[in-house]
Amino acid sequence: MERIKTCIYARVSTQGQEYDRQISELRQYADRMGYQVVKEFSEKISGAKKVEEREALVELLAYIEEHHVDKVLIYECSRLSRRAVDFLSIVEALTEKKISVYIHQNGLETLLPNGTPNPIAQLVLGILAQFNSMERSLIRSRMESGYNHYRSLGGRVGRRVGYRKTGEQMRAQYQNELKLLRKGLSLRNVSAITSTSINTLRKIKSQFIV
């Protein structure tokens, strides 16, 4: 019988921290379950960073685009991302590929053994998204208050009238998206990672990638 193929992803926030324990416990779990660990990814970077800024996570997503992997093992939700919107987007992209995410701290899998979404996982992740939405609303409210104060002093917010970006400005703005597209990731997955619309990705791909 073919063994279930898994990837391990571990992350810590600072250079002074170590992810050895995460990897060790996930290896032990994979061994107990009889899984085959085909690749391990680890990095030291804040989980609040956007996905495209995290090299090991981008490599993981590119790897599973090219190889048959059944599961991704992580220690806890925040290891994948502290940004709930990114976490949910990644899980959704993996679910579409029938790849389950195992969250060790909770003993939770995003897919059931028959390959369908786990409703308990959906509930937990939905609660996480709601907390994130509340936090984003608070941040937006504070930003809007700051913008209003700035406008009241005569300042302008937004793009200048008649302004059009040059090719170099477009390349600089979307350098992370271009990097992911050149790695072979699909428009849909790059959109899920970067929150850039598929139409915009299609435009920059046709403009900068032959």
Question: How does this model look, in words?
Answer:
There is one protein chain. This protein is 53% helix and 13% strand. With 210 residues, it is of the alpha/beta class. The chain folds into two domains: 5-118, Resolvase, N-terminal catalytic domain (Rossmann fold); 167-208. It has a five-stranded mixed β-sheet, sandwiched between helices. β4 (100-103) and β5 (108-109) form a beta hairpin. α4 (84-96) runs antiparallel to α8 and α7 (175-182) runs antiparallel to α8 (187-194). The protein is globular. The mean pLDDT is 82.
Write the layout of secondary structure elements.
Layout: E1 5-12, H1 20-33, E2 36-44, H2 55-66, E3 71-74, H3 77-80, H4 84-96, E4 100-103, E5 108-109, H5 119-152, H6 167-173, H7 175-182, H8 187-194, H9 198-208
Parallel strand pairs: 1-2, 1-3, 3-4
Antiparallel strand pairs: 4-5
